[in-house]
Design a protein that fits this description.
InterPro entries: AKR, AKR4A/B, Aldo/ket_reductase_CS, NAD(P)_OxRdtase_dom_sf, NADP_OxRdtase_dom. It holds the Pfam family Aldo_ket_red. GO terms for molecular function: oxidoreductase activity, acting on the CH-OH group of donors, NAD or NADP as acceptor. This is NADP-dependent oxidoreductase domain-containing protein. By secondary structure, the protein is α/β, with parallel strands linked by helices. It has a single domain, classed as TIM Barrel (Alpha-Beta Barrel). The protein is 34% helix and 16% strand. It is built from eleven helices and twelve strands. Strand 4, helix 2 and strand 5 form a beta-alpha-beta unit.
């Protein structure tokens, strides 16, 4: 580890592997390969070891180039020092396409295995259509059991150390757990102070499923996000009391809930600030303020029509 790198706590998954609680996220509406590669190398210098990508993000190849450069520069001694998460997109969410999709992700990343492979969403789309968002007539019935069996096969082949899901509600998790030989180690969902998902968090805790939060700061500046978190007066008050930013307060709140999270910033100063959350704790008064924040889901799902019933079952 470089002299400027900051150690990040790990959480132990039910697969027995350790996962850094902070991930460097690479999902963006305007990804540029050179920018992603440079940011990832800088992230490794700063201490990031968990990198979150997906086939749909188009960030796997530049990330792979960044990992190779980090090895060449001696920033890491081996690939084993990194924790790499990728995801299966809806157009590949079919039993016979899972293995080829994972193999393509590994090829893009220049890796022999992933640390974590996630079903991106409990939905399937026509294989020839890879887009966002989808129209209703472009979606197909989701063969959850068939897809998960194929995911488990990828695990048994040693192509991924752990397996999990994303955007799964408690009902979807119940369905999956009813037949899964290997339970999901992680459920990656939208979660932040303005969408706290208390019921889902409690359910996952009882099932030993670690939650990773995407949009942990509300995805301000994106087409699907909002300013609810970053412009929250309550969070600003808490931050002022602790000498911390709103982002740091929000990430600290997630950490104290036992939630891991993927942060997306390619600005060096903000990348550093995301680590500066382990030197303070929130008070009871802070929690009372956070509990007052109006709850609004930002991400409806990968479609042009309302997916609330499919993805979230009206949960909060």
């Amino acid at each position: 580890m470089s002299s400027t790198a900051v150690p990040v706590p790990n959480v132990v998954l039910q697969s027995s592997f350790s996962m850094p609680v902070i991930a460097f996220g690479t999902g963006s509406e305007a990804n540029d390969n050179d920018t992603i590669k440079a940011a990832a190398v800088e992230a490794i210098k700063l201490g990031y070891r968990h990198f979150d990508t997906a086939s749909f993000y188009d960030s796997e190849q530049p990330l792979g180039e960044a990992f190779a450069e980090a090895l060449q520069l001696g920033l890491i001694n081996s690939r084993d020092e990194l924790f790499i998460t990728s995801k299966l997109w809806l157009s590949d969410n079919h039993p016979h396409l899972v293995l080829p999709a994972l193999q393509k992700s590994l090829q893009n990343l220049g890796l022999e295995y992933l640390d974590l492979y996630l079903v991106h969403c409990p939905m399937s789309a026509k294989p020839e259509i890879r887009k966002f968002p989808y129209n209703e007539d472009e979606l197909l019935p989701f063969d959850m059991k068939g897809v998960w069996t194929s995911i488990e096969k990828c695990h048994s082949l040693g192509l991924t150390k752990s397996i999990g899901v994303s955007n799964f509600s408690t009902k979807k998790l119940e369905q999956l757990l009813s037949f899964a030989t290997i339970p999901p180690a992680v459920n990656q969902v939208e979660l932040n102070p303005s969408w706290q998902q208390k019921n889902l968090r409690e359910y996952c805790k009882t099932k030993n499923i670690v939650i990773t939060a995407y949009s942990p700061l509300g995805a301000k500046g994106t087409s699907w996000g909002s300013n609810d978190v970053m412009d929250s007066e309550l969070l600003k008050q808490i931050g002022h009391a602790h000498g911390k930013t709103v982002a740091q307060v929000s990430l600290r709140w997630l950490y104290e809930q036992g939630v891991t999270f993927a942060v997306k910033s390619y600005t060096k100063e903000r990348m550093k600030q995301n680590f500066e959350i382990f030197d303070f704790s929130l008070t009871n008064d802070d929690y009372q303020k956070i509990n007052q924040i109006k709850q609004t889901r930002k991400m409806n799902g990968p479609a042009t029509f309302d997916l609330s019933d499919i993805l979230w079952d009206g949960e909060n």
